[in-house]
Fold these 2 entries.
Entry 1:
Amino acid sequence: MTDDMGYGDMAGYGRKDYQTPNLDKLASQGIKFVNAYSAGPLCTPTRAGFITGRYPARTPVGLIEPLTGEKKDSAVGLTPAFPSIATLMKASGYETALIGKWHLGARPQHRPGKNGFDYFFGIHSGAADYISHKGTSRLPDLYENDISVDKEGYLTDLFSQKAAAFIKQKHDKPFFLTVTFTAPHWPWQGPDDKPYADSVDFRDGGSPAVYAAMMKSLDDGVGILMKSLDDAQLSNETIVIFTNDNGGERYSDNGGLTKSKGSLWEGGIRVPAFVRWPGKISRGTMTQQVAVTMDWTATILSAAGAKAHVDFPLDGIDLMPVMRASNKNIERTLYWRTFQRVRQKAVRMGDWKYLKDAEGEYLFNIVNDQQEKNNLREKHPDIFDKLKKKHADWEKTVLQPIPL
């Protein structure tokens, strides 16, 4: 999983000013999703959705949009009270590891090791300086398991190297490896840049050239991981899933979609996604199947023969039947809600999308109008009312939002 990548930020999805050969090669080796969504338009909710396989609003940490370095957020995080994908994979006989960004709590009881991961190397914050490895609180934020570590190197490269080393080491059991790159999330730094001064906001600076350098390091890292699988002779028995946690922002290309990160318009939640599994999924295929973050959770668990906890049913579905017969799509109804910084609601059901923001309420035929330009609320009041009611009914099944 990458962080803050726009829908059109890879050359294979339309970017013109730089190349992403390793990512595009990976996409060509399997099936490409053009209607994939993140569970939320911000980091923490989407990660909660992936790790639990359930809507972010079903867990307290998923209500935080997103976790910050501020004191008020320090007591919030994911706990073993909510079964994680790692816990469920371990129960099915898998070794588990997470390398990269966590962003689901920094206190000891909230860390990856307490939520099913045998090994962790990465940061707890929502972002860290790529050079100094200081997190959003401007304290050192690079950890190996629960131990703070001091290593030199560009953060994206360190994550790639650690993930490659994990793949190459001897494994006595099958493994589940989650690599959560921070790139291309701010701070805007390439491998040759200097650390940010503590007085400088992480959101300051950057340029299209710096963004391109960040994307190149990410692309190089994906190439390293794929070569590691080849070298270990594991490529044919390994499912590789690539996706992103929300839409892009300042230097991103959101592929012509409306708005960006933080919004429930398509630019904030439509994300690139593709899956490779040689011999199981046909090469060079594309699907119109609507997918969401929690589907990757359900798909991984199903492929591993792992089962969800009976008291915590998954909100995602196993997409493997679709990927192995890509002409048979499953109709989905998906829900989103933001509350703390902007108050928006959205539903996608089949070809239709209901959206409410501060300016009004909308109905779009999202298949014919991906840029959300033509509000069909007045032309199709029955569909509008149906989707609005479905969202209201869904909200009764999740936790109440928490004001800032």
Note: The longest helix spans residues 208-231.
Entry 2:
Amino acid sequence: MPGDRPKNEKQDEKQRVAFFSLLAAFALTTIKLAVGLHTHSLGILSEALHSGLDLLAAALTLLAVKVASRPADEGHTYGHGKAENLSALAQTVLLLLTCGWVTWEGVERLAEGASPIQPSVWGVGVMLLSILVDANRVRILRRVAQRNDSQALEADALHFSTDILSSIVVLAGVLTVWITDVLHAPASLTRILSQADTVAALLVAVIIFFTSLRMAKAAINSLMDAAPDNMAEEVRKKVLTVPGVMEVDSLRIRKSGPQYFVEMRLGVPSQQNIEDAHTLSHAAEKAVRTLLPEADVTIHIEPRTLPKTQDVFEHIRAAASSFGLRVHHIHIYGKENPRYLDLHTELPAEMKYATAHSLVNNFEQILSSQLPGLEIVSHIEPEYFSEKECGPIPIYRANLLRREVMRVTKNQPHVLSVQDILLFELPELGTSLSFKCLVPQGLTVYQAHNVSKCVEQALIESVPKLGRVIIHLEPESQTFPL
């Protein structure tokens, strides 16, 4: 993870790879310029100019990385990370200037039918060298950019990956002219193929133009504090999983260089005390950093009241939901105060029990203040969501289970028929059994639940090592083949 490494180590790595890129750009510019002047190849000269701008871009990147590494100060409270975005935008301007010059010169040569290029194996060699150097440079830049979330290095990597493509195009043009000369092609064919270098240069210009547009869009979006695609929604969903968070409002995400800044308002139950609200905000910060490891997170707590309802059970469920709790088996005993409430609460299985107890205890206190005269007893249990491997069941055991299902359901007057019996063997849990039952349409939910409960209990008592039973009831009016 990017956040697992010290900032100084990351900055040193970014500066080293930026310096390496600068040296490579200087070497390629010098070689291309010498060979381009020798061969009069517009393709190679355009690549030399391109590499010259690469040299300037690499210098800007190195400067930007050094400036971006400075800590925040009174004049730059969000740090200096935008220097990387400015560098990326400057590279875009340089690329567009290159594109304009190459297009102008190429169109002029095509209009005049002139091709001053001198066929040479040196032209072929320098383009091959350029491709090899750029491929290695892109590999290093992309790896370091991803590890350190650097837009300046990422722009360099994108820039030089297009250099590879443009170098291949120019190589094809230079190689075509050289082969035409070596094979002594007819004059009519030579006139056509001699323009291959110029056409290659124009193709380079097209590649540069569209690459520049993509780079400009990314740099401008970052400078205008555009939030990364879908990141706000992912952060919102993650924070809402924190028990006790009722809502996430006014969520803002901006990026300065590799640094993210996240601001939000959290809605929490109005009865929470300051200490619990502070603990909740820390939990929300940790949730954000699972997505953005080094984010600077600012949270403002807003008290929220629960919606009023006449249904006490609905009120209990709403209160539990505001704490991020799932509740079931809610029972209230007695008609006069004090009345007694017991219920089951579900929390993540990996949560520390002390944390879970504190959260549920806070929920009970708030619920007691909202429903006076109600004494609450809660049972904490883990919530399970799992995906497990399953294995086949021996034929003799499968037949036994099917016979038991038919025998047990036959003794239930409300079960009209059985369908879709499924059997699996689950590690550690034992045999999993599921099936559907057709029941009369007039049953209430309470009666239907009793039917499935009686069938389940009878099967567990009669079949050894039966770990899980799922019974789905279908009313007889539904389509259900017999």
Note: The two ends are 56 Å apart (CA to CA).
